Amino acid sequence: YIAMALLVGFGWLAVGGVLAVAYGGMTAGPYYDAVWHAVLVGFVFSMIFAHALLIFPAVLGHPVPYRPRFYLPLALLQAGLVVRLVGDLALNPVLRRWGGLANALAVLLFFALMLMTALQGDDGRWCFVRRCSSRVPDRGRVQDEGWLTEDERISSGVACPGFPIEAEFRTKDG
Fold it and tell me: What are phi and psi of 120, to 5 degrees?
């Protein structure tokens, strides 16, 4: 997936370069739009899609495993950009709008899929974040507002492995 997104991104950079050479004197209009969208949407967003699987886990401190579904927003981004550039070069504003809409949907879909994948454990189960507010079950001691220790997460069975989830514990008396 990463290699495919990188290759496609560099392909869009090349398309943007060819269009810049062909229509380089433009400062506005559909040809100018085509050059900039090939570079800024095609190249930049393909690079974001490619590197997200490496960057998000480093920032979140939680693995975001590859899933084949990540190809869907990547393909939608490329298809939308082709439609937009055809609309630009053919001076067809309807195609430009549809291509732009497809690109916006691709970006939203990508981030939704990344969030969904981050909230799923490696086995596909959903993990939800909640706050600790009372006692740890069967221990009779007060748990501070904060993260559970790894042992407490494992013994309570509420958290997905490897994901720092806080769980809401309540005893019968409150």
Answer: -95, 140
